Amino acid sequence: MTISTQPDSPILDVRQIVPRDRHPLIFNTFDSLEPGHSLILVNDHDPKPLHYQFMHERAGQFDWEYLEQGPEVWRVRIRKDGEAA
Prior knowledge:
By secondary structure, the protein is an alpha+beta fold.
């Protein structure tokens, strides 16, 4: 796993994380963000199931933006809604 930081967007590379541990790590990282900040998710497949889980568990609390869509690497900016701290 790689977590690098930019001013308001940690980069969370989960390609080397055991699949069952990915979603909890992503949600914990998202939950630790200040409102208005983002994380950049790097994955080895389209994280569409994660997007559905976000829509169910964090409805109205996030924005989802694909930055890169495969075929080998997917990058998604997940922004926590709310005013910047």
